[in-house]
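Many introductory courses stop at the sequence. We go one step further.
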Amino acid sequence: MPVAGFDWSARCDLLVIGAGVAGLAAARRARELGLDVLLVDKGHWSEGARRHLRFEGAATNLAQGGLAVVGLSDAPGGIHGSDSVEEHVADTLDAGAGHCDEDAVRRIVAAGGDAVEWLIGLGAEFDRYAGEDAVGKYSRTREGGHGHRRIIHAGGDATGAEIQRALEESVGGIRVLQNAAAEEIILDGERAAGALIRDPRGLGAVLAPATLIATGGVGHLYLATTAPDGMLGQGHALALDAGARLRDMEFIQFHPTVLFAKERRGRRPLISEAVRGEGAHLVDSRGTPVMDGVDPRGDLAPRDIVSRAIATRLRELGEDHVYLDARHIPDVRERFPTVTAGVATAGLDPATDLLPVAPAVHYSCGGIDAGVDGRTSVPGLYAAGECARTGLHGANRLASNSLLEGLVVGRNVADDVAGRVGKHGFTEPAEVRRRRVRPNLWPRDLDRLQRAMTAGAGVTRTAESLGAAAATLAALPDARETAVARAIIAAAAARPRTLGCHTRLD
């Protein structure tokens, strides 16, 4: 039966909003469990018209360094090798500055081996060690905050693209709406019952007993970010308007090595942490190492520490960038082809040039408050991936734990939904109607918002800077982007002391 008052309608068991690692893992696993899945993605795609990834706008596609995992069956010295779940847990807790949910960390890390083996079974191909003594063993690198070389990778530094490819190819047959955006979560009392979706046909109602928000982060609420275009916290706003809790929104991780340009605006090329894992060093304009005396782990300290050290050095020198020196890494172009292509856009070569870098927004450690099974505070509403706060990352994300989290929690969502749909069934709401319409921001207003967030809630914050940002946001229309930005500023103002990637100077 069509839903009255809407241009079109549909029904499914699981509605997935977002097509990165978390959304696709949930969709694939749900299909394996016999659920009817509808996948919604805002990108435009025409079958056969292009050869690139169908969901190329997903942040997963841009992930370079790799996937942190222990417990793969190929590991040297046994199933765990010289590494272990406990050591990975310890590194995650340390990077999270004491703010992680230890149970969530343990459950996600422990499930990583099985989840990655499942992904490999779907066709994902990771780089292998060369040499007869290591046939069949995956190549592993080390990144900041990790005590072991536990990060597997693909295509040198194109890990996310390979994971995206494998998952995309695995979800053939699932219904997909593209050039489509979720505008509101449908509520039946206090229960989520699907979402209102706008596509070229108009505004439609998708009814479902379970809805997963997997829309990524908030990078473009700032002037410079590593996030793909359009990451403006839309999923956070959907959840907020549905009555779900946001948590830890102040913990915005700035990646320390993002290619610097004088007019830094929009998405900037990332220089993977794995480059430092292979021996690259940060130096200032005088050639002085940035990390000397800052942390015993040097250039491989967690991201919050490195970004804070760079910001401190730049403040001392009155400059706007430092340099990454990767010139001594053997075959650096071959090992990091994505990085090489990114810096080439600025006429640079990692084998011969110092690379100008500065911190830029990379990842939101907080988000929609959700469990390891993806459940939010609203029954029937789930969240996974960067838009969710499971407690894995705490106050600062450990490098290469994001793909792990999306993969594990996405699968968990499908398992939970399958159990609940079969047990409880689904009664459609008697009435479906719009509850709230937020205005769209004009470009000039979005520019004001981005400038206020960059100045007020950057790598370092003060009560004064946060207050100025709050005043600017208060004068803007009550759009989705504004609501999420206000949540970040309010959370940052409520935490007066430095913790993880939230750095207070006052």
